[in-house]
Amino acid sequence: MSMPANRWCPIARSLGVLGQKWNLLLLREAFLGRTRYGEFQRIGVPTGTLGARLDALVDAGLFERRPYQEQGERSRDEYILTAAGRDVLPVLAALIEWGESHLSPAPGTGGTYAATSPEGHAVRLAFVDDRGTVVDNDAVTVARKR
Amino acid sequence: MSMPANRWCPIARSLGVLGQKWNLLLLREAFLGRTRYGEFQRIGVPTGTLGARLDALVDAGLFERRPYQEQGERSRDEYILTAAGRDVLPVLAALIEWGESHLSPAPGTGGTYAATSPEGHAVRLAFVDDRGTVVDNDAVTVARKR
DNA sequence: CAGTATCCTGAACGATACTG
DNA sequence: CAGTATCGTTCAGGATACTG
What we know:
homodimer, alpha+beta, two-stranded antiparallel sheet, 6 helices, 6 strands, DNA-binding
């Protein structure tokens, strides 16, 4: 995403990293516990694209390579989420919630993903103020600072 | 986004609507109160692209056209967020927060956007459980249902 | 299994010109 | 001001073959 007129905008800048077609799907797999090339490949991404996307995500600091070695095999790399990568979770959660609410099929018939707290409680995304009070989405307004 | 292997996934499906380069930027403008062609145009999108994106967002049900008429001018259309469109706010907020945390320049030097509650309190996105208790991002796990 | 290398195609993009 | 039309370019994506 080039867009010189929007370089100041964190949305545009985030999309520069996260906006390509496969990146968020690879991150989804990572959150589901996948770490290896072959596991990522199974979601349908062509190998050429996969290599490029993995490189890009490593360069952007969302994945880091970690060597591993199976019995009698050469050393290979796993792709592990960094702290920056783990912070993408709200983006994924927001997309999941929007898709399940507004896209056919089966809007509202129980989701395909479950997000849970360490205690096993289902969690959802919400806006909260500094005291931790939940604020309804429609009540939130956005403004540009300065 | 075609991806037959991922049609079940609400992330992939949401990206089908929201993933194009300019769509989220147009929605950003809508949240900032812009409604008219010329206002959208100012963000740097070429007119051809703008027409196509606006059509797509109307077709997807995120914008609706509403006629307006200035003194002595012909009737024109404004582009108004629908309920589905307003629900995109968490996606934008998540991208803003990720970008401001992890992308140069000036990560953490105070954001470019402010989200506020009706009472004027600053709000941020967070995971909450069914009792409204905030759960730390890193403590949340995702799993595929069924 | 874990990649790299090639080649092709299509869609979004960007610029520019034109119309009511 | 609010668009539509045209055109060239670029790049992600897709298919396939090949390597260690």
